[in-house]
């Protein structure tokens, strides 16, 4: 297991991150109950994971602040959803982008550049988060529709799972 760099950030910096996250994902208020707190940060090099009371809640990757994938379904975060068929799941879980032909259903709110969650059709569980490359009416067309930035089984997910379970 690799050694992760972990440190606390100031209450002021934490408050700014929490406020930013709450404005995008209001349902996080059921999880993050105190805005005046000092978040812990796990530095993974290509991403930062923010821990609230030891629980991974947010990821900053490529200047995007997104929820950690493990909390999305658990806390019912209202992130626009794209449902993919089971044939697409294994590719997405290996880091592939979402291609139009694998999309079964699309949230009509989606605009190009939005953070979206990718859900496996049969299980209705979030398997990835990404950036929409198209508006909702064009997502099912041939070509890339969503750029995958965080998925179950990726380095962020594995590192945090190892780190959290090894700390206990």
UniProtKB/TrEMBL annotation:
GO terms for biological process: formation of translation preinitiation complex. Residues 80-153 form the PUA domain. GO terms for molecular function: RNA binding. NCBIfam families: arCOG00985, unchar_dom_2. This is DUF1947 domain-containing protein. It comes from Candidatus Methanodesulfokora washburnensis.
